[in-house]
Amino acid sequence: GAPGLGGPHPLVFLTLILLATSLAQVTPGARYRQFLTRHVDFPKTSTTNDRIYCNLLMQRRGMTRPICKPTNTFIHTPADQVQAICRHAGRCHRQNLCDSNAAFRLTTCRVAPGSHPGRCFYRGRVQTRQIRVACNRLLPIHFDRVL
Amino acid sequence: MGARFIPSFCLRRLPCFWNRKRDLASASKMELNIQCEELSASRWTELISSMKTSKTVRLDDCSLSASSCKDIGSVLSTNQTLSELTLSNNELGDSGVELLCKGLMTPSCRLQKLWLQNCNLTDACCKNLSSVLSTKQSLTELHLGDNKLGTSGVKVLCQGLMDPNCKLEKLQLEYCELTPDNCEMLSSALRTKSSLKALNISNNKLGDAAVKLLCQGLMDPNCNLQSLHLENCHITAASCGDLGTVLSMKPSLIELSVGENKIGDPGVALLCQGLLNPNCKIEKLWLWECGLTPASCKDLSHVLSTKESLTEVSLIGNELRDAGMELLCQGLKDPKAKLQALWIRECGLTAACCKSVRSVLGTNQTLRELHMGGNKIGDAGVEMICEGILNPNCNLRSLWLGNSELSAACCRSLATVISTKQCLTELDLSNNSLADDGMKKLCEALKHPNCKLQQLVLYDIYWSSEMDDELSVLEESIPGLKIIS
């Protein structure tokens, strides 16, 4: 660089880049990764039936401690196709909510009434539907609903 | 790919940086507890040696197989202190269980509790398990759910159960493909096994005739059963008379679940007759998804206001509606009502019944847990509930309002409750569009010194990245508070 010319000192840029990277640890990257962990399973993990699928996946993806997450939908599509909803493959409206153009294969898991923390049992329901997600900087970070 | 997508966060020990607060259970040397982890050969060797001195071992969903059972079998034959073993969700197969049983049968083995749920077992392994039952006096609990044992398998198992050496206290056979043919032997077991305290045969196609047969066994003077779970057993009102009779004659039966059986209003009426008998000392009653309507609520209300032993009731998934809820509330206001936990999720309730709920909260001092999620009560409903909670009489500790069509508008009332009601330690607001505005109000309340909330559940609520950061910082700054999202 050439200090003395007009413009910010290179060190300022360096500081900004470092700041941005550290902020990124708590912003979109982390939320997107959590979205993937909670909502994307491709290819669909093979199990005996959808109920066992839900019991295993909800546990494996960390949604049974410290309490049983009441409902959760898994999408059986590659992550990049889900990501695309936030760009060209979806219709976006208010509050960053985007509806997918395509229908996706889904398994929705709902906690069974007799469940308690540490003993989470689920019911599974398979369907092929369009979905609504919330996007932040072109990445899905929140699963809103099955349409 | 597929099977183990990012399993690392499941491990209690590895850091998972998007979880705000890692619940690191203090790993006691006596307790080995591993869930969903792929175990390398070297790790397995390490674990085997820890198992040799452990009191409890849990290896749930760890890709164990029959070969692992050989090693575990040798641990069982040498470790005299091992009292609990959980190997659920591993494809052990019948051959694996055979190897385990070899270890279990050694005289020095003192195992008390064994969990083998969803281990790909069939009737073939029941002979081995039966031998264990008829030999191991130390074994008090056996959980075999989600294994296709079938009629023949369970018959063989019952043979072992009947042995005088067997001192089993808890038997769980959910989703084991039991049939009505199994109930004669189970009935005999109930008649003979005075040690049996809990029986769970939910999710097996039994039907009314089979359940009536079971009731005969339950009525035997030798039977001391405390807990009976018959969920989704294809029961109708036809067997509720017999169940009611059991309730009226057996003070030992303190926990009954008939959830997910279409017993309907007629069935509940029959059960209530038994429940009202002074001999009945029922404490927990689960009637979720039983096809009940507001018509059931008169009898239920009467039970609530009479049965002082009754501490927990679940009515999840019955179309009770506001009319039904209002009737229940009348019962709950009675000074004799000692209910501590009420589950009325997904009961078709609206804001209209919340006035009665407010009234209950303002009078009833024993209610500690209220699960009301999945009802369209909205902001108006929640505001009334909050008013009730603020009453000094109310001792509510745990409030669940997930998926209740709430918005930012009700957060002012919720904030007041959070910052005032010191007894409230648990609050669930999942699946509500609280938005940043609502969340901000809640955050302010959390900072209040009077807020004693330990667990705030906020699953599936969309907020901005800024709010996300704020919540992280807030949670770090308040010791004792866990925000689950």
Please provide a written account of the structure:
With 147 residues, chain A is α+β, with helices and mostly antiparallel strands. Chain A has one domain: Ribonuclease A-like domain (P-30 Protein, Roll), CATH 3.10.130. Helices cover 29% and strands 29% of the residues of chain A. Chain A has 4 helices and 7 strands, in the order H-H-H-E-H-E-E-E-E-E-E. In chain A, the strands form 2 sheets. A 4-stranded antiparallel sheet of chain A has the order 2-3-6-7. Chain A has a 3-stranded antiparallel sheet with strand order 1-4-5. Chain A is globular, with a radius of gyration of 20 Å. The model of chain A has no long low-confidence stretch (mean pLDDT 87). With 485 residues, chain B is an alpha/beta fold. Chain B has a domain of 113 residues: Leucine-rich repeat, LRR (right-handed beta-alpha superhelix) (Alpha-Beta Horseshoe), CATH 3.80.10. Helix content of chain B is 39%, strand content 11%. Chain B has 16 helices and 17 strands. Chain B has a 17-stranded parallel sheet, with helices on one face. In chain B, helix 2 packs parallel to helix 3, helix 4 runs parallel beside helix 5 and helix 7 packs parallel to helix 8. The N terminus of chain B is likely disordered. At the A-B interface, helix 2, helix 3 and strand 7 of A face helix 16 of B.
In short:
The complex is a heterodimer of chains A (147) and B (485). With 147 residues, chain A is α+β, with helices and mostly antiparallel strands.
Residue share in helices of chain A? Answer: 25-40%
Cα distance, first to last residue of chain A?
53 Å
CATH class of the domain at 373-485 in chain B: Alpha Beta
| Bulk shape of chain A | globular
CATH class of chain A: Alpha Beta
Give helix and strand order of chain A, one letter per element, not per position: HHHEHEEEEEE
Oligomer: heterodimer
CATH superfamily of the domain at 373-485 in chain B: Ribonuclease Inhibitor
Q: How would you state the average pLDDT of chain A, rounded?
A: 87
Content of β-strand of chain B: 5-15%
Which architecture of the domain at 373-485 in chain B would the CATH scheme give at its second level? Alpha-Beta Horseshoe
